[in-house]
Amino acid sequence: MIISKPPSLTTSLSDMEGPKKMLIEHLLANRISSNGLLQLRSMINSDDLSDIIQHIYDLNEKYILQISKVEGLMRIFDDIKNQRRNNLFTKKMKSGFRGKSPNNKVILAEGDSWFNYPIILTDIIDRISMEKNFAVYSLASGGDWLLNMLTGRHYVEELSILHPDVFLISGGGNDLVGSRRLAAVLESKPGDEYLHSSWAQQLIENADGKFIPLNRDDFNEGVRYLSKDFFALLMFFHLQYYSLIHGILKSGKFLNIQIITQGYDYPIPSSKIGGLKIWRWYIPFVRKFLGHSSWLSTPMKIRGITNEDLQRKILYSIIYLFNEMAIQLGASINEEFPDSVFHIDSRGSVGNGGWTDELHARPEHFLRTGEVFANCINKSTKPDYAHTYIVGKMKSEK
Amino acid sequence: MKNLHFILWALLIIVFAVLAGQNFYITHHHESLPIFSLETASANEGKAILDTLAKKNIEGVSLLHFAQVNTWLDFFFIIGYVGAIIMISYSLMQKEKQPFINNFLRFDILLALIIGLLDVVENIILLNDMHDYKIDKQYISSMHVSDPKWILVIIVLVSWLVSLLNRAFKRS
C-alpha cells in the first residue's frame, strides 16, 4: 500500500545492488521466503533498514523520527525516573559494587513503557532494580519506538562505557501502535496475506505449543486482518533485533554478555475509563490522561473493526507472532553465540482483567514479570524451554 | 523533580520550625495551645477550649489569636506533609517486592491527598469557629473530619511500618 514515495527513496532503492534490492522489494511486498529473509539479514545495513521503514510507513525518515520521538511531559517524566535509577546506579558503582561479589550484575536497560512507566505504576525495571545484587542503568522511555532506540544509538555509548553483564531490550510495541499506526497495518476485511508469508507460517509451525498453547481458531481468525505491511513490519523488527543483538555479540567487546528480550502480553482493546475502584484508584486517571484507547481501540475502529472479540483475536495473533519472532531470532543467534540471548514470555500472564490501560499491566503483573527477569539474570531457575522463561498466570488466576 | 522534593521538604521543615517556635514561646509563658484537643473535640468541649483561649493572653495577645495564626500556618504545613507522605510512600513502593504491600503503598498516595483535603476542611471549620469569637457564637465541631484524618494517618504509618518490617525480615 505504498501511496507515494519521496524522490530520495526511489533513488536509494534503485541504487542498491541487485539481489539485496530484490529481497527488500520481496520483503516489502510480503513475498519473501524464510531463506530470503535470512539471506537479507546477513547483507543489510542501517541505511537499508532506514529505507525499508520509510517504505512500510509511507513516510520519509525525518517525519518518522519526528512522530516516534518522545516529547513533552512524557519525556520529562521518563527522564525523572531514569535520573533516579541512574543516580542509584552511580551510587552503587562508587561503592565498588562490581568488585564486591561475582554475583553482582551490571545491567543496561533500553526499552519502552514496560521498562519505564514514569508515574504511579511499578514497572519491570523497578522490580529488577529491587534486587540487591543488580545495578541497573536505564535508557528506557515510556512511548519510545524501537526505531528511535536504534537510530539514537544511546545504548551503544553506554555499552562501551558500562560493559554490562546483561543488556535488556523491550521494543516494537510503540512502532506498532504509537501515533495510531495500528490502523495502517490492518485490513478492514479478512484477507490472505498470512498465507503469502512463508516466514510467518514457519514461526507458527516451529512454535512450541506445549508451553504457550496456540488457540488456532482465534489466531486464524485474527491473522486474516493483518495486512502485508504488518508482515513487512514484523520482518523489519526481526532485522532490527538481529542487527542490534548480533551487532553487540559480533563486536567481541562484550564477552559473556546476556541479552534478554520480552514480547508483551495479549492486550485488550478498550475505550472504557472504568468506574472508581478505591484500591485501584489510579486506573481511571491513567486511562483518562495517558493515551488509553488511542493505541488499539480507536485505530481498529478507524479501520471499521468494531467487534470487541475480533479486535482481541487480531491482537492475539499479533502478539503471538511477535513473541515467536523474538524467540526464534534468539534461537538462531544462540547457534552462533551459545547461551547469549534469552526471552521472557509474558503471553497469557496478565489475563483479561489485569490491565491498567490498553497496553500496561497492573503493578502486581509487572512485579511478577520483573521477578522472572531477575530469575533469568541470576540463573536461579532454569528456562521453561530452550532459552525462554515463561511468566505464566498468577496463582489466584490459574 | 529533585527541586520539587527539596522545596516540599524545606516547606515542611520551615513551617514545622515556626510552629515549634510558637509553641515554645507559649509554653515559655506557662500557657499551652491545645490544637490537637481542639481538632478532635466535640461541640461542647471545643467551645469550652475556645472560651479558655479567648480569656487568656500573653503580653496582651489573646491565645485565640495564636490559635488562628497556627491554623493559617497549618495550610502550608499540609502542602509539605502531603508531599512528604507521597514521596516516602513512592520511595518505599519502589523497594517493595510484595504485591499487596506494594499496592498498599500506592494506595497511600491517594490517602495522602484525602488526608490533606480533610485537614483543609478541618482548618476552615476551626477558622470559622475562631473568627470573631463570642461566648454565644454557634460552634461547629471539626471532629467529624479530624477523626477520619487521624485514622488515615495511622493507616499510612502502619503500611510504612509493615513495608519496613517486611524488608528487614526478608533481609534477615
Characterization of this structure:
The complex is a heterodimer of chains A (398) and B (172). Chain A has a six-stranded parallel beta sheet, with helices on both faces. The radius of gyration of chain A is 20 Å and the shape is globular. Chain A has 398 residues and is of the alpha/beta class. Chain A is 52% helix and 8% strand. With 172 residues, chain B is an all-alpha fold. Chain B has one domain (2-171). Chain B has six helices and two strands; from the N terminus they run H-H-H-E-E-H-H-H. Chain B has a two-stranded antiparallel sheet. In chain B, a hairpin with a 2-residue loop joins strand 1 and strand 2.
Helices and strands in order:
The complex is a heterodimer of chains A (398) and B (172).
Chain A: H1 7-15, H2 18-28, H3 34-43, H4 46-57, H5 61-68, H6 72-94, H7 97-100, E1 105-111, H8 124-129, E2 134-138, H9 146-152, H10 154-162, E3 166-170, H11 173-177, H12 193-196, H13 198-206, H14 216-223, H15 228-250, E4 258-262, H16 282-289, H17 297-302, H18 308-336, E5 341-345, H19 363-378, E6 388-390
Parallel strand pairs in A: 1-2, 1-3, 3-4, 4-5, 5-6
Helix pairs in contact in A: 2-3, 4-15, 13-18, 14-18, 15-18
Chain B: H1 2-28, H2 35-40, H3 43-55, E1 57-58, E2 61-62, H4 63-93, H5 99-130, H6 143-171
Antiparallel strand pairs in B: 1-2
Helix pairs in contact in B: 1-4, 3-4, 4-5, 4-6, 5-6
